[in-house]
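Q: Given only this backbone (82 positions), what sequence would you predict?
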């Protein structure tokens, strides 16, 4: 027996969009880390990563730490989130 399923088109709610907006600095920082890691991988084919490549990765990781702390502070402090 085959059941018909209704097509569900779910769009993000205002609360979902607000949560994404709150976490966006962390998401962007994590994308910077990924980009730096990809650069290191490609550098292996061209003589290895430079000191500047490693510095870029360390700075991107530091941004993730700062952004994660900021997001955690905002989500734990309702007065600050508003």
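A: Predicted residues:
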């Amino acid at each position: 027996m085959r059941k018909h399923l209704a097509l569900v088109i779910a769009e993000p709610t205002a609360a979902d969009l607000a949560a994404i907006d709150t976490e966006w600095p962390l998401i962007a920082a994590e994308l910077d880390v990924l980009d730096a890691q990809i650069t290191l991988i490609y550098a292996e084919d061209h003589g290895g990563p430079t000191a500047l490549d490693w510095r870029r990765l360390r700075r991107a990781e530091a941004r993730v730490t700062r952004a994660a702390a900021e997001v955690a502070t905002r989500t734990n402090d309702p007065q600050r989130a508003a």
